Description:
The protein is of the alpha/beta class. It has 11 helices and 11 strands.
Amino acid sequence: xxxxxxxxxxxxxxxxxxxxxxxxxxxxxxxxxxxxxxxxxxxxxxxxxxxxxxxxxxxxxxxxxxxxxxxxxxxxxxxxxxxxxxxxxxxxxxxxxxxxxxxxxxxxxxxxxxxxxxxxxxxxxxxxxxxxxxxxxxxxxxxxxxxxxxxxxxxxxxxxxxxxxxxxxxxxxxxxxxxxxxxxxxxxxxxxxxxxxxxxxxxxxxxxxxxxxxxxxxxxxxxxxxxxxxxxxxxxxxxxxxxxxxxxxxxxxxxxxxxxxxxxxxxxxx
Length: 270
Ligand SMILES: Nc1ncnc2c1ncn2[C@@H]1O[C@H](COP(=O)(O)OP(=O)(O)OP(=O)(O)O)[C@@H](O)[C@H]1O
Ligand SMILES: [Mg+2]
């Protein structure tokens, strides 16, 4: 294999060569029941999907994982899409992370797409159709370029990237584009030897889009809310829909959402 002599590309080529020789790792999530269901934790590299109905606890789980990975010296990039980064910081604080300090130390970064949408709305001179705001705010190319900068900055460190959620992006595009975008996300996790977490709502999008997402992901966790639209008793059941090439039993594990996060039972429903 010949390396390009260009100084700027040489280290990148060398990095790719080193990565190819590294074995896959399993990174514990810090949630005992989930780790035992996943055979020790989330594989790295992997593209992992957290899918589920509205209010089922997807963001809670994603933020709990972020806090755990920060404790384990990961570099974390969080795309705040459904809620502003400020709300995510509050969520992380509930689970014991000092987001401001982690950001100052360069261990945590946000791409605040939600706040960008707010700005776009404020800047629009006349009443605008929601599609126009969403269409100009959500560009796949922006997601990819922001992620690329982060990845290159932290090459050689363990990386954890959360997209919460991809639903608004996928509302506007056909399944074919979703599939292509998913494939690029998957390549990115391989290149950076990262864990990428993509959150997606179920029952909102066309079924072909849900299927495309499950098909490109290496691991898929599904949260099903106990009682739809009941906000008084947060909780439901968790299923491992996909775990690499392993066969997984279709068992459903009850969980509750508390101030400590998602608490999953070790015993599946009968
Ligand atoms: N600390 C907490 N204690 C108890 N309940 C909580 C706590 N944090 C969140 N919840 C509740 O858990 C439920 C799930 O919240 P979460 O935002 O994680 O779900 P989600 O699947 O991301 O929702 P959405 O589909 O709207 O993005 C909500 O009803 C929320 O009010
Ligand atoms: Mg959410």
